[in-house]
Predict the 3D structure of the following.
Amino acid sequence: MARATSIQRRWMITIAAWSVGLLIFFPIFWTILTSFKTEAEAIASPPSLFAFEWTLENYGEVQERSNYFRHFMNSVVISLGSTLLGLIIAVPAAWAMAFSPTPRTKDVLMWMLSTKMLPPVGVLIPIYLMFRDTGLLDTRTGLVIVLTLINLPIIVWMLYTYFKEIPGEILEASRMDGATLRDEIIHVLTPMAVPGIASTLLLNVILSWNEAFWTLNLTAAKAAPLTAFIASYSSPEGLFYAKLSAASTMAIAPILIMGWFSQKQLVRGLTFGAVK
Amino acid sequence: MSTRQTRTAARLMMSPAVVLLLGWMIIPLSMTIYFSFLRYNLLMPGTEEWAGLMNYRFFLTDPAFFSAMGNTLLLVGGVLTITVLGGIALGLLLDQPFFGQGIVRILVIAPFFVMPTVSALVWKNMFMNPVNGLFAHAAKFLGMQPYDFLAVSPLFSIILIVAWQWLPFSTLILLTALQSLDSEQKEASEMDGAGPVSQFIHIVLPHLSRAITVVILIQTIFLLSVFAEILVTTNGGPGYASTNITYLVYAQSLLQFDVGGGSAGGIVAVILANIVAIFLMRMIGKNLEV
């Protein structure tokens, strides 16, 4: 009897959970679906769910209309570039704080975090003017610099929490076995640090890919990544739902896939270790 | 290997990150503070002069500031209410055993990975558009008048869009917190005859309180700076109906080229964010063992 009710309960929760899940996901599903319709069918009333002629022409048109591929590559270069540069700067810092902490380490970590709390509009004008005067406006280099700096605190923090979990006993054991500092780093620490570095990389590529304050304000046609390119659809000409959907689908697909792999790191990375 | 040597090495390893962040924080911020005391318009170069507190006086007495302030509070408050309550409900639901847990989790988290310009434009055109949007189709199907979301209630529509983007975040964090709840404690309370409601109030909610606080503080930091969603949907309008502080500062500095006024607004935004940041930093600091 108790077993029967528990199975019944499980089914009811299954239905409720799936309904909510599908409802939340629906706008994304609808966007992907519309990207395969013709413009006429995209605005047809009532809209058809699957009974329409599937077409790939929107993807081609989006590319022709404004060289989509270039903006896509801008996004790739900017998000990967800023993340890698951030890692190069942050790995030594997080390493030092995790493995030879001083009484001031906590203050340094907290201070780094506080820079992340600075609202971007507080520094918009100086950055804009500096970029204008140094020719960095609308360049990939400029955006890589800014995104590296705004993500640096998160990168340091995530790496720190991962490095902190590497047990000190292993180091002692390897030292007892006569390992030199070099051996220690290459054969003991690095293999244990790689998963943490990889998760940090993943989450920060996602954050940079979707960053939409600096990318919108500091780029025009040339260096615009997808965030800024998609914004150009806010003043459209003619029918554009299917094209908007195709452009959006290509812009979010890579990050959706990466995001699903980084669910767990998301919590750690965005709460700065306050929730694990 | 002496401790001293390690210390020096550690300091060297940390210095690039520290120097860069120090520069990033101090140089532009002090420039903003300086500009905020100047009469400085990009359209009239060479006419900069000391203006004292004039920019602040204008910014803080401008009716636009009051609407922007009210909109900012409504936007942050509205999104927080939806995402925290929704997050708790969803967290509780997804924490139960059911079929296909992994897939549903993925579906729920997905909106968080959609870039702000995409989600705003998809909602604006394909859902909220009064002629071709899905909501309009649904209204016509039910024999009702389509509702022009972004024209009639722009701020409310933006709150909906932003809440959709942030609901996955609060759900994920509250779900993570729920999963760390000691099941023995729950079972013990069941043995003592606690019903689901009193169990929720006396055991689950206190356990979640910390995670809820973290969600509120972190989201507030990000929500104070909502920008792209407003830019691509309403441009802050009609009038100032959907302008928040961030958008107001942007409009003043990069659309009207009023560097002095925009800088004063930027400093006001920094002060607002700092009030929240102080509480957040305390929470995180307590949890940090070095």
Observations:
- Chain A has 13 helices and no strands.
